[in-house]
Amino acid sequence: MDPLRADGACQALRTWNGTADIAAMAAALRTLVPALPEAGAYSADEALAAMRDLGIFLGSLKRHGTEPLSLVPEALPVLTELGRRTGMVPRDTVHHYCTWNPVGERRRMYTGDAQEAHLQDSVRMVFPSLRDGLEKGSSLSETDPLDPKFALLMDELAALLECMVESITMVIDRVSPHWFARELRPYFEEITVGGRVLLGPAAAQVPLWLLDQVVWASDHAEPEYAEFLRESVPYSLPRWRAFYGHWSVVPSVVSRLVQCYGDDPEAAELRHPQLRLSAEALIRMLRVVIVFRGRHLGIARQAYESEVRLYPVGSGGAGVDLLRQILDLTRQTARMSGGAGVPRHDQAHPLPRTCAGARAAQSRATASTPHGSAVPASAPSAVPAPSAPSDQPAPVPALNGKEAPWRS
Ligand code: HEM
């Protein structure tokens, strides 16, 4: 689809980017911007394609040091209209840059380098599975952990998430972190659209964080991750934004599982053998996410090493430290779901809503011990100390004294 008849200009853009020809880019963008009534008459697919093509020019102009809408202000009402029509932000997102981008000769790219195409493809390949995965997440949010359907849904989700591991493995094999840091990363800078600062179309918008939200993050995220989640939501699709809104006000899947374990996990498992199967399936799913995040952290570290990087943080507005924290939280969740950390709560202190809440609950409990310093065995575990990055899941403590589920 080429509603702006931009095929030729998009091809030329690769050359203009190579020579930093801002004048040529700005002139081409002015020609591409449609009249407002024309944009208003586009079908939904045409509106997405138009945003994609305008977007690649916006990112290119910014990469060469100019705020694109200062140079081509006539694009502003059109971007606003295209955003409104599609229910999305008024600039291009990772969906436009990767998924709604043709392959072959018509592929829209900043550089024309094969590594850029690999990165686009690595992101494109995860979206069908992630879309289905989010629907599974929606079903899981309504499924009782005691229902045999819970483990089945969780295993289906784990299978869908394998594509994330395949994707990052492909990137590790085919994309040089140095090239990414020096050549591609600058195109993903934020731009200002009508007074609003909008992030570039980077892979951090891939909504793995939204799955976290339903599975554990709605009530177990650290403040930095919760903020990253909130800031990522606007770049998401309308249905997924609605998921976020709903999942933010209901207990996470992990919290409901932990609640089923109650004060006496062993008795709970004896009463409900299905509970252990549910916990095992959850951990199998988290294990896939941990493998993705371990490998992803490895390549992100290399691209953001101080001698290599041009920017201190990623184009999603966060740094490698946050990736480390997210990986640690995912591991911690797996440990907690494995049973050793299944918190036992007294009636006065029901399930903490956040890790901070968990720590507060822990200090309340500690304060009530005779010496005030020892952490009682039943208290929820605190965030573990960071360990060396790895693509292997961290060892999971025994499940209520038994072997951890994924090893059994
Ligand atoms: C050269 C390759 C890559 C580098 C250097 C990189 C770097 C980063 C960085 C620094 C962040 C932190 C947020 C931010 O951008 O500000 C991030 C987040 C993220 N990236 Fe990447 N990334 C790469 C490729 C990918 C690919 C191929 C995918 C998936 C298909 C991906 C998925 C994510 C996700 C889902 C997040 C949000 C945090 C999370 O859920 O763990 N990244 N990335």
From TrEMBL:
Feature: compositional bias, Low complexity: 356-393
Listed SUPFAM superfamilies: Indolic compounds 2,3-dioxygenase-like (SSF140959)
Record InterPro entries: PrnB, Trp/Indoleamine_2_3_dOase-like
Domain of life: Bacteria
Region feature Disordered, mapped onto this chain: 356-408
Gene3D superfamilies: 1.20.58.1320, 1.20.58.480
Name the record gives this protein: DUF1864 family protein
